[in-house]
Amino acid sequence: MKRKSTSRDLSYLALPELTEGSAEELTEPVYERIASRLRELIFSQEIVLGDSLPSLRTVAAKLSVSVDTVRRAYFILIDEGIVESKIGSGFKVVGLPPKEKLLYREEGAAQNRVKPKQTESLRLCGKTLSYFRSDHYQTRPFLYFGETIELAKDRKWNSIVSQLNRMTWHHAGYSNPQGSVQLREAIAETLLQNRGIEADAENVVITTGTVQSLNLLSSVLLSPSDTIVLEKPSPNLVPAVFAFHKIRTSFIPVLSDGLDVEKLADCEDCQALFTVSSNQIPMSVCTSLEKRKQMLTWAQQKGKWIFENGMEDLFWSGNRIPAITALDRLGGNTIFLDSVTLLFFPGIRIGYIAAPKEIAKVLAGAKLLLDRTTSTKGQDYLGQYMQSDSFEVYLRKLNKIFVQRRDLLKELLETELSEFGLVSESRCGCHLTFTLTKEGVSDKDVKLLLEKRGITCRVLSEFPGEAGTNGLVLGFALFQSEELKTAISELKQVLRRLYAQ
User: Fold this and answer.
1) 111-125, 203-217, 280-294: lowest mean pLDDT where?
2) DSSP strands (E only) in 345-408
3) Mean pLDDT, range 96-103, rounded to an integer
4) Which DSSP string do the residues of 28-42 spell out, in sequence order?
5) β-strand 431-436 against 458-459: which pairing, if any?
6) What pLDDT was estimated at residue 15?
7) Is 147 helix (H, G, I), strand (E, B) or coil?
8) How many angstroms separate the CA atoms of 204 and 356, rounded?
9) Distance in angstroms between the alpha carbons of the first and the last residue of the chain
């Protein structure tokens, strides 16, 4: 844009209403009119950010007003943060005025404007953004996903990060949309050792996390107007992702041993099933081996997809139940997806999909169209660390810590709060569910009072497709014993207060 000289031709500053003898007839002070005119010129980019305004005397002479009048106009803009004044530098434009301050826009323009049509996706995305609340992610009880402090103590991890950060140009180019071979090999090895899923690097596609994985699967394996079965209640954002792709959702309740499989017979028109099989979010229910086999048989006989999310499948107390994908051996009906959020930290933004090789290639193509590739530096961090001996040591350490903290929280809930509800029986994952059994108190009221005490608590009634269940979702993995004991004490006081009322 051509920059206007602010020291020579000042015709752009002219105010027609300031003709000789008319200033006294104005309904607002002259300095306000000057300030308004300057706002309009800055907003329309006739005066651009970084320009210096003409001197006070120059403008005063041009408009036939006093220097003090111009000074008052300039200082109004300084107070609004639009103009900055420095000794020896004059007045410089440093910000844009808000629209509500513009008085020179054409009257009636807003009424004559025809706005573009609002799509259903526009409304959905606007509504979905309200889901994100920073207080949901503060590391305080009972958050169930967050920064795993144990990683910060790991020497091997810190050594790898430090070394790669010194290699300034190592990650300067484009990388394979399917992801780093080193990281995909490491993930394939972990899938076999910890989930029983037989895969190699060609089966794996690196994504930025579970949400992107679901977007890729929706784009490639489903079509608009298709139907997918979700567990009831469902993890947050999952139904919104499918709705964004115009995919219908049908909910089936979760029972004490997993999905109510018998109701799958009523879903002839659906094309896929999404399940969190090992520690269902939010109900903290582990799908039994028998039900996993029944779900797989349904998919194989009916030609359906199963999207299995393993986000809480690494940390078990006792014998592990094989993943549905392990039972299928990636035979063509199952897709496994996971994120490293729980293992490492959310900000690393890396997840993955394990799929039949021909599907993995197509998903990598969709990844290229969506955002080309996932952070190469983050992939190198993880690839090197997961292939080191330290990773297995780290996994065993985390598993021990998580099991101890789960047992402690379960014991506290059963001994301190048994009069108010029941705790879930899950043997894995990083959260437990406490179902309120006494009538008269809403889980949302509990949440509000806990927030006032500095405690984060998600509640069952806020999850999509909720089944009329009243209860609390309590994360434990990130907190020391004393933190959990203090939080349970606060929860006990809140419940007693609410039930007393």
Assistant:
1) 111-125
2) 351-354
3) 70
4) S-HHHHHHHHHHHHH
5) unpaired
6) 65
7) coil
8) 9
9) 66
Considering only residues 43 and 419, tell me which one the structure prediction assigns the higher pLDDT: 419
Q: Provide the token pair at 298.
A: 């349904």
As a whole-number percent, the residues of the chain with pLDDT over 70 amount to: 89
Q: Identity (one letter) of the amino acid at 397?
A: K
Per the model's pLDDT, the better-predicted residue between 474 and 118 turns out to be 474
**d(Cα 53, Cα 253) in Å, to the nearest integer?**
67
- Identify the helix (H) or strand (E) that includes residue 383: helix 376-386
pLDDT at 20 over 50: no
Lowest mean pLDDT among 83-87, 149-153, 190-194, 321-325: 149-153
pLDDT (0 to 100) of residue 2: 43
Cα 322 vs. chain centroid, distance in angstroms? 29
3-state secondary structure of 328: helix
**Structure tokens, 190:** 């972990």
Q: How many CA atoms lie within 13 A of 435 on its CB side?
A: 14
Region of residue 200 (phi > 0: left; psi between -120 and 50: alpha; otherwise: beta)? beta
Please tell me the distance from the alpha carbon of residue 201 to that of residue 179, in angstroms, as a whole number: 9
- pLDDT band for 7, please (50, 70, 90 cuts): very low
Buried b (16+ CB within 10 A) or exposed e, 446-473: bbebbeeeebbbbbbeebbbbeebbbbb
Q: What is the pLDDT of residue 486?
A: 96
Residue 159 near residue 153 (C-beta atoms within 8 A): no
What is the rounded CA–CA span in Å between residue 295 and residue 317? 24
DSSP 8-class letter at 94:
-
Q: Does residue 4 have a pLDDT over 50?
A: no
On average, the pLDDT of the chain sits at: 87
| Distance of alpha carbon 240 from the chain centroid | 12
> Which tokens belong to 374?
């996932």
Helices (H) and strands (E) in the chain, counts: 17, 14
> In this structure, what are the phi and psi dihedrals at residue 140, rounded to the nearest 5 degrees?
-150, 150
Check: CB of residue 209 under 8 Å from CB of residue 238. no
Q: How many residues belong to the chain?
A: 501
What residues pair up with 229 in beta bridges, in sequence order? 250, 273
Q: Enter the tokens of residue 327.
A: 């039972």
User: Per the structure block, which two tokens stand in for 383?
Assistant: 């690839």
The Cα 444–Cα 42 span in angstroms is: 48
Q: Which tokens belong to 213?
A: 């994985």
Burial of 175 (0-12, 13-18, 19+ CB in 10 A): middle
φ, ψ of residue 256 in degrees (nearest 5): -65, -20
Per-residue three-class SS string for 394-436: HHHHHHHHHHHHHHHHHHHHHHHCCCCEEECCCCECCEEEEEE
Q: Read off φ and ψ for residue 466, nearest 5 degrees.
A: -55, 145
CA distance 196 to 201: 15
Report the 10 Å Cβ neighbour count for 223.
Answer: 12
- Which tokens hold the place of 18? 């300031």
CA 297 to chain centre: 34
